[in-house]
């Protein structure tokens, strides 16, 4: 039950210099892979590009074949009310349950707002959010 | 001529050569009798102590290399009884194993004697206050210079390296007149002093210094002398010889290699043949009087020339010119010798990164910086930045431990580092002297 709400995010190691994002995005474009959401985390000299895509397995293979260091990471996507307090609702549920957020990013599109989370106890987080009446993105059909 | 040891320093050339022959003969007989290593090497070469019938015959002896020290780690090449040793120093090796050098009481005395002659030849003596800003400890620089400076009667201020503002304060307060350190550290000190509002030229008593452990140039000397208002002398040595051991004299026309302590040859690295004066080759030294760790025809790896003719100072001993580079890929980072093979060896022990690497050496202000680029391995790649930072810091920590020099690590994308292009691409040295 919980597992079907765990989404596979692809994470790509990238040097922090011009053209690296273009190389990654170009590769996904050529493979006709759509990106729902993405973020860049940066550190000293390097970064990690994180993306939710429609075909994660294909994206992983495509980028690996091009020489990128790629991994899958389990994340969850929580639908939020696109109005004041939307984030607060979800953050409170997780905080009350003692679940720590390692990183997060969000998008707001035509079907509402979604918060993407990497948490330390992912199955527990899914249970807690569902129990409070929250809605989660489902893993794209394989 | 103001000499520390007039009889030796001004010895007529022929007499000096006869002395060198007697010392070489004695050395070869001794190591043949006492050392399994030398006996085996000489047998392989087909040479016996009796074959040394003139000074030129030393060329019949086999060469020694740094790898001989590594292969016989830690003390397989020592020829003095353990309890005759009064000190060890340790320097980096080419791979995981460091190089251990040992000294008898006499070895320390000869080392100090050698420096005392050099320091005196530049006018240093009683009444001088000598700040030793070489590192003290396993590195030979600090203690070596310290003993030489004490021997000539100078007052030693053993500041070692670092805490530069305090060094400048002490230089002023204790009226320091002489200093020894790497040339780059001196420049750093000069810059720090200026930030403190202190001009070394106008606000201190510093009048001369000995700079070495890393290559520098005549241009750098001119800049230092003009900027800091001092006389800047070259000092040379490696731990295998004892440590920093030989200096220029006041003429600044090459480094005097005291012939009673060391026999110099300049060897063509390609043919192993001895080269005449004036031609550049690999410095090869036989330490004629070392007891604990004699080095015979030791190929140091530094490229230089033998200077022709006698020095205007009147000293008769051979002189070598400025160091022109290395025969191998050894780097000198803030005075510390670093071999790319040490980096490779260390990385092989860290599974989180691949075995490929690139070293970028640069100079920020006056100080050398060393950057090592590595690739994160597939297994270790995490999408959490904190995990990647731990890998970066782990590699930095391990490299610092292995090299004795601070290193910054950069994580790069897989496949971007040079693979098969050979050593030249593995090291990018952006420093200019």
TrEMBL record, chain A:
<feature type="domain" description="ACT">
    <location>
        <begin position="75"/>
        <end position="142"/>
    </location>
</feature>
<dbReference type="InterPro" id="IPR045739">
    <property type="entry name" value="ACT_dom_pair"/>
</dbReference>
<dbReference type="InterPro" id="IPR037523">
    <property type="entry name" value="VOC_core"/>
</dbReference>
<dbReference type="InterPro" id="IPR002912">
    <property type="entry name" value="ACT_dom"/>
</dbReference>
<protein>
    <submittedName>
        <fullName>ACT domain-containing protein</fullName>
    </submittedName>
</protein>
<dbReference type="Pfam" id="PF19571">
    <property type="entry name" value="ACT_8"/>
</dbReference>
<dbReference type="InterPro" id="IPR045865">
    <property type="entry name" value="ACT-like_dom_sf"/>
</dbReference>
<feature type="domain" description="VOC">
    <location>
        <begin position="45"/>
        <end position="142"/>
    </location>
</feature>
Automatic annotation (TrEMBL), chain B:
<keyword id="KW-0436">Ligase</keyword>
<dbReference type="Pfam" id="PF00501">
    <property type="entry name" value="AMP-binding"/>
</dbReference>
<protein>
    <submittedName>
        <fullName>Phenylacetate--CoA ligase</fullName>
    </submittedName>
</protein>
<dbReference type="GO" id="GO:0016878">
    <property type="term" value="F:acid-thiol ligase activity"/>
</dbReference>
<feature type="domain" description="AMP-dependent ligase C-terminal">
    <location>
        <begin position="335"/>
        <end position="431"/>
    </location>
</feature>
<feature type="domain" description="AMP-dependent synthetase/ligase">
    <location>
        <begin position="82"/>
        <end position="285"/>
    </location>
</feature>
<dbReference type="GO" id="GO:0000166">
    <property type="term" value="F:nucleotide binding"/>
</dbReference>
<keyword id="KW-0547">Nucleotide-binding</keyword>
<dbReference type="GO" id="GO:0042537">
    <property type="term" value="P:benzene-containing compound metabolic process"/>
</dbReference>
<dbReference type="InterPro" id="IPR028154">
    <property type="entry name" value="AMP-dep_Lig_C"/>
</dbReference>
<dbReference type="InterPro" id="IPR045851">
    <property type="entry name" value="AMP-bd_C_sf"/>
</dbReference>
<dbReference type="InterPro" id="IPR011880">
    <property type="entry name" value="PA_CoA_ligase"/>
</dbReference>
<dbReference type="InterPro" id="IPR000873">
    <property type="entry name" value="AMP-dep_synth/lig_dom"/>
</dbReference>
<dbReference type="Pfam" id="PF14535">
    <property type="entry name" value="AMP-binding_C_2"/>
</dbReference>
<comment type="pathway">
    <text>Aromatic compound metabolism.</text>
</comment>
<dbReference type="GO" id="GO:0016405">
    <property type="term" value="F:CoA-ligase activity"/>
</dbReference>
<dbReference type="GO" id="GO:0032787">
    <property type="term" value="P:monocarboxylic acid metabolic process"/>
</dbReference>
<dbReference type="InterPro" id="IPR042099">
    <property type="entry name" value="ANL_N_sf"/>
</dbReference>
<comment type="subunit">
    <text>Monomer.</text>
</comment>
């Amino acid at each position: 039950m919980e597992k079907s709400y765990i989404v596979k995010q692809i994470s790509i190691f990238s040097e922090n210099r011009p053209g690296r994002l273009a190389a990654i995005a170009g590769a996904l474009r050529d493979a006709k892979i759509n990106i729902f959401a993405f973020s860049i985390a940066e550190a000293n000299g390097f970064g990690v590009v994180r993306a939710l895509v429609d075909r994660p397995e294909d994206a992983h293979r495509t980028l690996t074949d091009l020489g990128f260091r790629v991994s899958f990471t389990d994340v969850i996507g929580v639908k939020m009310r696109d109005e004041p307090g939307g984030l607060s609702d979800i953050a409170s549920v997780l905080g009350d349950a003692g679940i720590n957020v390692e990183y997060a990013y969000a998008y707001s599109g035509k079907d509402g707002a979604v918060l993407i989370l990497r948490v330390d106890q992912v199955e527990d987080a899914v249970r807690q959010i569902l129990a409070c009446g929250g809605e989660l993105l489902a893993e794209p059909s394989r | 001529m103001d000499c520390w040891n007039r009889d030796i320093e001004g010895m007529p050339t022929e007499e000096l050569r006869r002395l060198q022959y007697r010392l070489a003969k004695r050395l070869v007989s001794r190591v043949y009798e006492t050392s399994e290593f030398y006996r085996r090497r000489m047998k392989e070469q087909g040479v016996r102590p009796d074959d040394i019938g003139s000074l030129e015959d030393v060329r019949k002896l086999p060469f020694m290399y740094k790898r001989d020290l590594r292969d016989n780690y830690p003390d397989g090449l020592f020829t003095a009884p353990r309890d005759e040793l009064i000190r060890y120093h340790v320097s980096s090796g080419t791979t995981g194993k460091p190089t251990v050098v040992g000294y008898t009481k006499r070895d320390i005395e000869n080392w100090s004697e050698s420096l005392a002659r050099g320091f005196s030849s530049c006018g240093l003596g009683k009444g001088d206050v000598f700040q030793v800003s070489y590192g003290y400890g396993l590195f030979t620089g600090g203690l070596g210079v310290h003993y030489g400076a004490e021997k000539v009667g100078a007052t030693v201020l053993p500041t070692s390296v670092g805490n530069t503002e305090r060094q400048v304060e002490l230089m002023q307060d204790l009226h320091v007149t002489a200093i020894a350190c790497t040339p780059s550290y001196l420049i750093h000190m000069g810059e720090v002093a200026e930030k403190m509002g202190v001009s070394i030229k106008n606000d201190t008593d510093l009048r001369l210094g000995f700079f070495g452990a890393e290559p520098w140039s005549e241009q750098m000397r001119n800049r230092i002398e003009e900027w800091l208002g001092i006389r800047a002398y070259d000092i040379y040595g490696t731990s295998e010889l004892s440590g920093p051991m030989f200096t220029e004299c006041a003429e600044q026309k090459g480094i005097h290699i005291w012939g009673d302590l060391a026999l110099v040859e300049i060897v063509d690295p390609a043919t192993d043949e001895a080269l005449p004066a004036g031609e550049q080759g690999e410095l090869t030294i036989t330490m004629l009087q070392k007891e604990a760790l004699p080095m015979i025809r030791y190929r140091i790896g530094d490229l230089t020339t033998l200077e022709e003719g006698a020095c205007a100072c009147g000293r008769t001993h051979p002189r070598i010119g400025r160091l022109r580079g290395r025969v191998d890929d050894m780097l000198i980072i803030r005075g510390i010798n670093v071999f790319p093979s040490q980096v490779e060896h260390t990385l092989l022990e860290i599974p989180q990164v691949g075995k490929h690497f690139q070293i970028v050496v640069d100079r920020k202000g006056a100080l050398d910086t060393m950057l090592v680029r590595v690739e994160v391995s597939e297994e270790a790649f995490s999408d959490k930045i904190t995990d990647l930072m731990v890998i970066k810091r782990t590699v930095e920590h391990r490299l610092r431990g292995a090299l004795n020099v601070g290193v910054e690590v950069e994580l790069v994308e897989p496949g971007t580092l040079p693979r098969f292009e050979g050593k030249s691409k593995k090291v990018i040295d952006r420093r200019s002297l």
